[in-house]
Amino acid sequence: MPPQKAKKMSDAGHTHKAYQGIRHMLFHNEIVPGQKIAYRDLAERLGMSQTPVIQALKWLEFQGLVRHERHRGYYTEPISIQEVEEIYDFREQIELALLPQTMARLDDTAVKKLEEALNAHLKASREIYLYGRLLKDMEFHLTLAGLSGNRVQHQTLRLLFDLLYLKYGGNILFSTSMDKADTAHKELFGHIRNNQLNDAKTVLSGHINSVKNHVLSGLERLMKEKYRAGF
Prior knowledge:
single chain; mainly alpha; Arc Repressor Mutant, subunit A; Four Helix Bundle (Hemerythrin (Met), subunit A); 3-stranded antiparallel β-sheet
């Protein structure tokens, strides 16, 4: 392999590693909303030079997960109640629109795949690891959407989950009611398996709106507490 090509591949690998590392920090609330991102510190934590870290931050900026201010550097956005509400509303539109397509394509293989995603979520809900619960919840919804065969809307839904879970991280996690999600997912799966489209739509819509209202209430309380504490 020519040295120049090998170097480009190596640089891309370091940038990807930095990108995944920063995503992990965002998800686990190690980088919080409204924070200035010191890429020198990130480079030290990730054990690499600053160049791939800066490239990774540019990638995250393109995705709307961080912002860049000229001559000042990179920042995470502060919590926006309006944005969170808009994300959940858009999620509902996409997931409800894809549901008839999913059910029209349903076969034994698809039912088994969805059931596996459901069981993974239910198992995670009985464990202590909270971040794992959130990931399995997302995977259930993405599996359901993916079975529709609509790749564009499925990818858009994935980007919405990124905005929720990476931009707001643990602030979303600790505002979410997992017990209600378990029940809703089981009911939804039952209606889909039995080809009950209207009932499935009702459960899915109610589930997304219930989670949205729970999260918004939790974030509003969090912001009031921070305000009273002087943050």
